[in-house]
Amino acid sequence: MSDFLVYLITGLGTGCGIALIGSGLVLIHRVTRVVNFAQGTFAVVGALTAISLLDTGLPHGLAEVLGVAVAAVVGLLCGMIAIGRRGTSPQAALMVTLGLGILAYAVEVMLWGDQGRSSEGLSGAVTVFGARIQTHYLLIIGVTAAVFAALAALFGRTDAGKALSACSSNPYAARVVGISVTRMGLIAFAVGGALGGLAGVLLAPMNSMAFDSDVALIINGFAAAVVGSMHHIGRTLAGALFLGVAEAMVAGYGSATYQTVVALGLVLALMIGQAARTHSVVAEAG
Q: What are the backbone angles phi and psi of residue 104, rounded to the nearest 5°?
């Protein structure tokens, strides 16, 4: 029972990190129709920046905040290159983000080397029904809950959130009422960068971060975003939590080698299921 609780809570913590990456993917796709393949890069940049700042003696909290801020700036720059030019199609922008993600490898190796690095997380552990849980996982869960509450408030109660939703629902109508779709897209990229960077700094104490860590991160984030149909942030959170717990159970009761296989298998099954549903709807409409 205690092992199950440990795997469950660590899986929820990992799932929260995945949810932050997936929600960044969804936010950018909702506003710009672009699948951002550089989303994992934002997490790596945020994590490695925070680790470097901690090495210089900067205190915890400030280093992580600056890491997230740098990731947000990188996200904004990525958006300016991908969608800044008027008339760029989502397909072309997708390829641009893929190229930027590959280019980032070279920059990251020059800045931080090719070896994985990690930071010290929140120390200590608590006992829950006989299971010892690392406190840092509870921090990840708490921070993620606060971020998703803030996202709900952003889209439900603020003019900026409503403008982002308008661009998502009908870009033409948004332009007619004076909303700059490009500007909203750049804001989405910046927020997506911050969400990715936050995931990176939260996961860095639990998983070593290197220049190529973005691959596993984007696979998991994309799997969660597919659960949310690349549109629904709440469903993305649910999918990420399910994925995180499934991976923790596989690693705990089986082998960590198969964690990525779980993510890829889930993505494949969901994409096949969604393609089948779409075909059914089209067939019924015809």
A: -60, -30
Distances 157 to 151, 152, 163, 232 between C-alpha atoms, Å: 10, 8, 11, 17
Between the CA of residue 129 and those of 137, 140, 251, 252, 255, what are the distances in Å? Answer: 16, 20, 21, 18, 25
Q: What is the pLDDT of residues 174-218, one digit of tens each?
A: 888 788 888 999 999 999 999 999 999 999 998 889 999 999 899
Residue 26 contacts residue 36 (beta carbons within 8 Å): no
Distance CA 223, CA 275 (A): 15
Please identify which residue in the block is written with the tokens 């911050």: 194
Contact between residue 7 and residue 249 where contact means Cβ atoms under 8 Å apart: yes
Residue from 142, 141, 160 nearest 151 by CA: 160
Alpha carbon distance 183, 175 (integer Å): 11
| Dihedral pair phi/psi, residue 254, rounded to 5° | -125, -110
Residue whose entry in the numeric block shows the structure tokens 């298998």: 265
